[in-house]
Design brief:
Length: 327
């Protein structure tokens, strides 16, 4: 990387942080639209889960089951907080790790499938998770889990680093900063991953798995690793969603959500790490904008998505950025 490229990248990161943490809150305060904090928090959480789906695309697999892990992660966090009194801050990584462990068990057999077969199996996972949540007593069936307490404080050596969310006059502001902070960390981690040695091995799987195997790469282990990281992100997104909504039901994440996670990646650009973030933002607000068209909403939405995929096969990021993988 040349000094100019490094400077451009640092400037881009700085601009993103200024916009997310300073410009957006100032604009919301000026417009007196505090309801947008909840909306933008939802966009951030959906982009985290979509980032996990993008990683499975990166190894050449189509993942239409991320809604299952978002639902599982949400239930794990809710159960740990309500039934066992665990802090939300501890339940957050535990929910992600539980989803990662579950994905290893699920992925070992299905990741051996190729192409559309793997995609169709993942499509079933979300419905399996929903039916399990309906049937199990620990999830409280169709009634779901409600009255989930807000995140408590984080202290270190007697100092309060993060106050309890209940102490905020506008709690949605606290959730906004939590969501965008986790989103920034997740995508920074994804960028670092794909630009590491492991990321280059992942790219080799996408290009030719047989060739990668002939070169001595442990292809099954790499597939499972990528799928576990993907599911971890889904679980984290679901856990934060539960904290914001203070409730979770079997219908909190459905097959439609799993499909949207995939579409976010297509729309933003499969060749770009930050594509899912842009795709989620555009798709979320675009769908709400099309609500004004009434009964034609779905028709227009489908037509626009088809046109975008045909005209911009590398996603919206390809309009401004060089068509370079992992940029």
């Amino acid at each position: 990387m040349t000094p100019m490229q490094r400077g451009t990248r640092i400037a881009g990161i700085g601009a993103f942080l200024v916009v997310v943490f300073i410009a957006v809150p100032m604009a919301i305060a000026a417009a007196h639209r505090t309801d947008l904090y909840y909306t933008l928090s939802s966009v951030a959480l959906l982009s985290i889960a979509s980032g996990g789906v993008w990683l499975t695309f990166y190894i050449g697999r189509i993942n239409i089951g991320q809604g299952a892990f978002a639902l599982v992660g949400g239930y794990v966090s809710a159960i740990l907080v309500t039934a066992y009194g665990l802090s939300f801050w501890l339940s957050l990584p535990l929910a992600g790790l539980f989803c990662a462990a579950a994905s290893v068990l699920v992925g070992l057999p299905i990741l051996r499938l190729r192409g559309v077969y793997f995609a169709m199996v993942t499509l079933v996972l979300t419905e399996v998770a929903r039916l399990s949540a309906l049937a199990l007593s620990v999830t409280n069936g169709a009634k779901g889990i409600t009255s989930i307490p807000a995140p408590g404080p984080i202290g270190l050596f007697g100092l309060t680093i993060v106050p309890a969310f209940d102490t905020f006059a506008e709690r949605n502001v606290a959730f906004y900063f939590l969501s965008v902070t986790v989103m920034a960390l997740c995508f920074a981690g994804l960028w670092r991953l794909v630009n590491s040695r492991v990321g280059r091995l992942f790219a080799a799987l996408r290009q030719n798995e047989d060739l990668a195997s002939s070169m001595g790469l442990n292809v099954p282990a790499l597939r499972v690793l990528a799928y576990a990281i993907s599911s971890f992100l889904g679980g984290v997104g679901g856990a934060i969603f539960v904290a914001i909504a203070q409730s979770i039901y079997p219908s909190s994440f459905t097959v439609n959500d799993s499909v949207n996670f995939m579409l976010n990646c297509f729309l933003g650009g499969l060749g770009y790490v930050f594509g899912p973030m842009l795709g989620t933002l555009v798709l979320y607000f675009g769908w709400d904008l099309l609500f004004q068209t009434g009964q034609y909403q779905l028709l227009i939405y489908s037509g626009v998505m088809i046109l975008l995929i045909l005209l911009l096969p590398n996603g919206l990021f390809s309009l401004r950025l060089p068509s370079r993988r992992s940029s």
